[in-house]
Amino acid sequence: MMSEVEIEGLREVTESLGEFLKRHREASGKNLEEIARVTRISKRYLLALEENDVDNMPEEAFARGFLRNYAVEVGLDPEECLDRFDRFKRSQLPTQIKDLRRMKKQDFVLGENAGSSVDWNLLRSPKLIFGGVTALVVALGLVVYFLSFRTSIDGEDTAQSIEIDEGATVTAEPENAAVEPSQKGLVTPVPPSVLQIEVKETLRLVVRIDEGAAQEIVIEPNAVKNFDVYRQIEIKNLKKNTVSLKYNGKPIEFSSTTLKLFNQYMFSE
């Protein structure tokens, strides 16, 4: 039988990044809600990291900062977490190139053993060479066309995404906004901006926060609602004389029924 030390060592090698994080979090006696509240990291990002959900993970720069804070909170070594994250990212790289090289090597060995079964004169045929070159040129042309087409579509989508109703007060997101690493190459998670909504009469609003789905909420008279904005927030059905807004404690003037705001701390130096 394997000793406990051997079992623990085997588990350290075979378990995934998410399993490693979840095991140590549960051992610390903390749940995701507690960690999200203390670190100010969205619960859905923490859940994506624990479930190895690549599609819902934050951008890598943010993910590394989140992992460092997560590790400190559950008593892990931050550097070990980042090292496991790097290995996880490498494991997601496509393996088609390696498989293709392996297949070519096997084909070469089979052809060599087959002796006269390979017609080398046929492979040197001018018609075959011309056909191969033509196919390669056509394929390259299609790739260039596809890349240029996607670039034009992405440019149009970017231009449309920053259109807002005239008169709304917003914080525009810079085109090349980047996260500045610290001296040790680490990223500090960006805190959320806070939007405060107060109404004078019952009001039904449609709110969409970050990449989440739009939700309809009802605010009663004199009630105050606060929303944490990690990336952006969009509000519809506003009434100028009924609603008062404060963003990070500062009043906001608006003249449209729709308002879109970005997290101000994402662009502060």
How large, in whole angstroms, is the Cα Rg? 27 Å
Structural class label: alpha+beta
The CATH architecture of the largest domain is Orthogonal Bundle
**Uncertain regions spanning at least 5 consecutive residues:** 112-116, 164-170, 175-186
The number of distinct helices, counting runs of at least 4 residues, comes to 9
**First-to-last CA distance:** 57 Å
Main beta sheet strand tally, sense and closure: 4 strands, antiparallel
What is the CATH homologous superfamily assignment of the largest domain? lambda repressor-like DNA-binding domains
Order of helices and strands: HHHHHHHHHEEEEEEEE
Count of discrete domains: 3
Indicate the CATH topology of the largest domain.
434 Repressor (Amino-terminal Domain)
| Overall spatial form | flat
Percentage of residues assigned to helices: 40-55%
Mean pLDDT: 77
CATH classification, class level of the largest domain: Mainly Alpha
> Strand content of the residues, in percent?
15-25%
- Strand arrangement, largest sheet? 4-1-6-7
* Total strands: 8
